[in-house]
Design brief:
The complex is a heterodimer of chains A (716) and B (322).
Chain A: H1 28-48, H2 52-60, H3 65-97, H4 117-151, H5 160-179, H6 207-235, H7 248-280, H8 293-327, H9 334-347, H10 363-391, H11 400-422, H12 425-431, H13 435-464, H14 470-496, H15 512-541, H16 583-589, E1 603-605, H17 611-628, H18 631-651, E2 656-658, H19 660-675
Antiparallel strand pairs in A: 1-2
Helix pairs in contact in A: 3-4, 3-5, 3-15, 4-5, 4-6, 4-8, 4-13, 5-6, 5-17, 6-7, 6-17, 7-8, 7-9, 8-10, 8-11, 8-13, 9-10, 10-11, 11-13, 11-14, 13-14, 14-15, 17-18
Chain B: H1 16-22, H2 39-72, H3 90-118, H4 125-128, E1 138-144, E2 149-153, E3 159-162, E4 164-168, E5 173-179, E6 184-188, E7 192-197, E8 203-207, E9 213-219, E10 232-237, H5 239-250, E11 255-256, H6 258-264, E12 277-278, E13 280-281, H7 285-294, H8 309-318
Parallel strand pairs in B: 1-5, 4-10, 11-13
Antiparallel strand pairs in B: 1-2, 2-3, 3-12, 5-8, 6-7, 6-9, 9-10
Classes of the chains: A mainly alpha (716), B alpha+beta (322).
């Protein structure tokens, strides 16, 4: 041992001991029992119905970008729920604890409310980390995973196996943070960690170690994913998908993943240095011996702020797809939208100091970063104006997807207004570390959540072949919005009343009414969660009535809407030839909606592989071993990981071939499945003369009824 | 035991929107940020108002536009004309970039640049420019421990008071701040904005107020389990009262040398809101502490200290620190 551990350690179990399992905790113990029972029920159920083979073949070993995307989204939704429960516990604690006098629960060891500071700190730290990195990020990565290849006419991601690896490493991070509930404890130093309180002297438990390795794993998974996205968009575009024909969502995915690729390594380095401090006894971020605790804050936010835009940009992309579809118009100012995305991505690198204006860096530095921060408001403002004017002269249908997107716009406006307040040091000094900041960034993150729900409703029929229930989508929207208003309007007010963040015991009785309003808001949020579950249930129950064709909304615009719903595993029977940025709208307008490939060619698809899930499981073991300092386990898992990687590299994946005849058969089946019981799609009118290229095989193929190249450019 | 001792506060709910107006000018208003009683806090408030007016005009108009378009272009209502090809306008795009650029340019100059100097914690021009030539500013050394505040008055025989701050009105007060173990934030919402307090580092802040009263001080950044109780009342008193109070503190027999400070700095949650005074602390304690921390001095936390607060309180009592 290079450091002096407070507490016992054994070579076999490291710091792990029976006493680390909180079986006396009146919240965690029942929860653990419930989860174990639910887990047993699940395993028994799967075994009873004999679904293990199906799960293994179709899901656990898959490299299909759509299935991986679905698993990312399920993972994200589960963690969104876990994070919400953390939020519920925090709101309840503050409501119960407010005011003077000892009103606590001795059973929980709390002298105010029901949570001792030790527990409260873990809950808000887990809440922040989960919501940003294990809920928002998987949800966005999942949607990008499904939609980006479809929007550019690719059969899969550039590296299908890498894609699966990213998912299973993210899943390992999720398992690691979930197991911290029941084995040991979690960090209580906030989701971003403070130096030097996360040093061993001030956080002697394993909580900070859980925090480090969860973050490291999710950072690794996301970095791998970003490489994949960039390679896919650069190399896998179908013929005709020029850079100016990329849909805005794909553009935002590109800008977001440039941010991810360049910023996540910074986080990994920062956390590795924290790990070195805690495991090797170095002094990178300690207060003494030449360590510099401010360096950590810089390194973290050097990643942290770009990360914020990594999560908001794809959300902007989703809004940019939904609003034009339900306005029946192209997006206003396409070039401007793309430029604005990259402007946001670029500026994201030069603003990180605004997270700690209060560190005393002096007025010149403060001013520089203040102005840089305000610059972000320019492209963001442009985006909002463009969305607004996309609706101008449109024909607006307020479907559930559309109202979620419009809701996101309003949250963005509030978030922008308060963000411009926070960007100014003179104002920031008064509200930094207050709940005003908390309310501000929840506006921005809820903007993402609204965009994600909008996107889930919008693209659900493309992936599953039937629409979600419109009425329940709207009911959920109004419940969720009421909850948002009731929780966060009081939070802004509490910020103006001077309440600072992370108070286990809010000492001021004058804050009490607002806490009560917030608790009502949380109850409304609970209703919206139930509405969401009901929405899913009702939609699956009534799926036969809600089957859709290729163009699920009748007014869809981009390329993904020309292929079948649900998307077959090969995405496009023939690689489409793209004539316009809004290919689906263009084809509809020119009478090509129903045009099917007339000839088929053999295609090459990647094989499934169990390697990704095995490496994912091993990374979890590495994380767990490191957390508890079980060195033999860590080393064994590490060696195994390397061996598996060598095995995979040596074996490679030759993939497999689907012949033209098989393709034709599958295409016919897919089409029949889709058209079964479904009314014909509405067609745009007008186009009569000439022919255009619809599928790439027809280009330059004298055998087909192809046309001279001159005719294949956009006609609109 | 879950029941709170605050009967009938639900009735306040109906008044909630009015609170803002009702309490608008009350000194002991609950709206601390809107009722600045210190020079620095007041300047910040003024800058905030400029910023909010400028931004609200843009954001508000945009919100109204969205609502108007939602109403006008609702499909099937035939209120507006449809143009499914309209996707670009040079004039509008220039306006879309121009409006935010103009707003940001104005706010940068009027608020960001001016404000950064006006309330710069190290040398706030709103305080320093108007200092009376003969007015003596007060220096206070602030030490944050886990989880108490120690305020040392070097000009007053190095007297000190813990967890309570007393400053004279109409007098600039200059703080030097450091921390023993971990980072936190010094914050008196109605008087002065936040400044980080870090171990092994020295930050500065300044305060001036002409409004007598008692204001809440807060440890605004997470610094561990005792943070919620790490509060200090800040009393702004007249100079005469201050002198009188200082005389009383100076004559306290309670003193503190570095060894005693070492004990004071051990983890302690100030649940009982103790405010001990020290007639004299060792000269140069602040710098001594800085050097010790830079040389690796730590005050480690016992494992799971606050897992059970009742258990902790028993320990605290057993150590005669309750």
């Amino acid at each position: 041992m290079l450091v002096n551990l407070p507490g016992p350690w054994s070579p076999l179990l490291g710091r792990l001991a029976l006493s680390e399992i909180p079986y006396t905790n009146p919240i965690l113990a029942p929860l653990f029992v419930i989860i174990v029972l639910a887990g047993i029920a699940l395993v028994v159920g799967i075994t009873y119905y004999g679904k293990w083979g199906y799960l293994w073949k179709e899901w656990f070993t898959t490299v299909d970008h759509k299935k991986l995307g679905i698993m990312y989204i399920i993972l994200g939704l589960i963690m969104l729920f876990r994070g919400f429960i953390d939020g519920l516990m925090m709101r309840t604690q503050q409501m119960l604890a407010v005011g003077s006098g000892h009103n606590g629960m001795p059973l929980m060891g709390a002298i105010h409310g029901y949570l001792a500071p030790f527990h409260f700190g873990q809950i808000y730290s887990a809440h922040g980390l989960i919501m940003i990195l294990l809920a928002a990020t998987p949800l966005l990565v999942g949607i990008m995973n499904i939609i980006v290849p479809l929007q550019i006419g690719a059969r899969d991601m550039a590296y299908p196996y890498l894609n699966a690896l990213g998912l299973w490493i993210t899943a390992a991070a999720v398992f690691l943070i979930m197991i911290s509930l029941f084995v040991g404890d979690f960090s209580h130093n906030g989701w971003f960690g403070y130096a030097p309180i996360f040093e061993l002297a001030y956080s002697p438990g394993v909580g900070v170690d859980y925090w480090i390795w969860t973050l490291e794993l999710v950072a690794l998974g996301t970095t791998l994913g970003s490489i994949n996205f960039l390679a896919t968009v650069v190399k896998m575009r179908a013929p005709g998908v020029t850079w100016t024909r990329l849909p805005v969502f794909t553009w935002t995915a590109v800008s977001a993943n440039i941010i991810a690729l360049t910023s996540f390594p910074c986080l990994q380095v920062a956390l590795a240095l924290v790990g070195a401090d805690r495991y090797l006894g170095t002094h990178f971020f300690t207060a003494g011996f030449g360590g510099n605790l401010m360096l950590y804050t810089n390194l973290f936010w050097l990643w942290g702020h770009p990360e914020v835009y990594f999560v908001i940009l794809p959300a902007f992309g989703m809004i940019s797809e939904v609003i034009p579809t339900f306005s029946e118009k192209p997006i206003f100012g396409y070039i401007t939208m793309v430029l604005a995305s990259f402007a946001i991505a670029g500026v994201s690198w030069i603003v990180w100091l605004h997270h700690f204006f209060t560190m005393g860096m002096g007025p010149y530095v403060s001013t520089e970063f203040s102005v840089a921060t305000m610059l972000v408001g320019i492209p963001t403002g442009v985006k909002v104006f463009n969305w607004t004017f996309t609706m101008y002269r449109g024909r607006l249908t307020f479907s559930s997807a559309m109202i979620w997107s419009i809701g996101a716009l309003f949250l963005l406006l509030i978030g922008g207004l308060t963000g411009m307040m926070l960007s100014i040091p003179a104002i920031n000094y008064m509200v930094h570390n207050s709940v005003f900041v908390v309310a501000h960034f929840h506006m921005m993150l809820l903007c993402i959540v609204y965009a994600v729900f909008s996107a889930i409703i919008f693209w659900f029929p493309k992936v599953f072949g039937f629409k979600l229930n419109e009425a329940w989508g709207k009911i959920m929207f109004w419940l969720f919005s009421a909850g948002t208003f009731l929780v966060f309007f009081p939070m802004f007010m509490l910020g103006f009343m001077g309440e600072t963040r992370r108070l286990d015991w809010p000492f001021n009785l004058q804050w009490a009414p607002w806490f009560d309003i917030q608790e009502v808001g949380i109850a409304v949020y609970v209703l919206s969660v139930l509405a969401f579950l009901w929405l899913i249930y009702v939609s699956i129950r009534d799926r036969a009535e809600n089957r859709v064709g290729a163009d699920a909304w009748g007014t869809s615009r981009s390329l993904e809407w020309i292929t079948d719903s649900p998307v077959p595993f090969y995405n496009f029977a023939m690689v489409p030839h793209v004539n316009h940025r809004d290919e689906a709208a263009w084809r509809r307008e020119h009478g090509f909606s129903d045009k099917r490939p007339e000839k088929f060619a053999a295609i090459h698809m990647p094989n499934n592989t169990p390697v990704a899930i095995v490496i994912g499981a091993l990374t979890f073991v590495i994380g767990f071993g490191l957390t508890w300092r079980i060195w033999w386990l860590t080393v064994a898992a590490l060696v195994l990981t390397v061996l598996v990687m060598i095995y995979r590299s040596g074996k490679g994946d030759p993939g497999y071939i689907i012949t033209a005849e098989e393709m034709e058969k599958m295409d016919r089946e897919s089409r029949q499945k889709m058209d079964d019981g479904h009314a014909p799609l509405p067609k745009g009118g007008g186009y009569t003369g000439g022919t255009v290229t619809a599928y790439s095989a027809e280009v330059g193929d004298p055998g087909s009824q192809s046309t001279p190249p001159g005719n294949s450019r956009p006609l609109s | 035991m879950l029941k709170k001792a605050k009967p009938g506060h639900w009735r306040y709910l109906a008044l909630a929107p009015l609170l803002l107006l009702l309490n608008g000018c009350a000194k002991h208003s609950a709206w601390w940020i809107f009722n600045p009683q210190g020079v620095g806090a007041k300047a910040s408030y003024d800058y905030m108002m400029i910023d909010v007016v400028v931004m609200l005009s843009i954001v508000g108009i945009t919100a109204l536009l969205i609502v108007w378009f939602m109403w006008k272009y609702h499909k099937g209502k035939n209120r507006g004309s449809y143009d499914g090809k309209w996707e670009h306008s040079n004039k509008l795009e220039v306006a879309f970039w121009g409006i935010p650029i103009a707003a940001v340019a104005f706010l940068s100059w009027a608020v960001a640049v001016h404000g950064s100097f006006a309330v710069n914690p190290y040398n706030p021009t709103v305080i320093t420019q108007h200092m009376k030539p003969k007015g003596d500013p007060i220096d206070i050394d602030v030490i944050a421990t886990d989880w108490q505040w120690l305020f040392i008055y070097p000009q007053f025989h190095n007297m000190a008071v813990a967890n309570e701050l007393v400053v004279p009105a109409h007098t600039p007060v200059f703080f030097k701040l450091t921390s023993t173990a971990v980072t936190t934030d010094f914050f008196v919402p109605q008087l002065v904005g936040m400044i980080d307090v870090m171990p092994g580092m020295r930050t500065k802040d300044a305060l001036e107020s002409s409004h007598l009263g008692t204001y809440q001080g807060i440890a605004a950044d997470y610094c561990g389990a005792g943070m919620s109780w790490m509060l200090f009342k800040t009393h702004v008193v007249s100079m005469a009262d201050f002198q009188h109070w200082a005389k009383g503190v100076e004559s306290s027999p309670n003193t503190m040398d570095y060894a005693q400070f070492n004990r004071f700095a051990e983890p302690y949650i100030n649940v009982h809101n103790k405010t001990p005074v020290y007639g004299h602390v060792e000269k140069g304690l602040f710098n001594h502490l800085l050097l010790e921390v830079m040389n690796g001095k730590k005050w480690p936390l016992p494992m799971f200290m606050t897992e059970n607060m009742f258990h902790y309180l028993k320990l605290q009592a057993a150590e005669h620190r309750a």
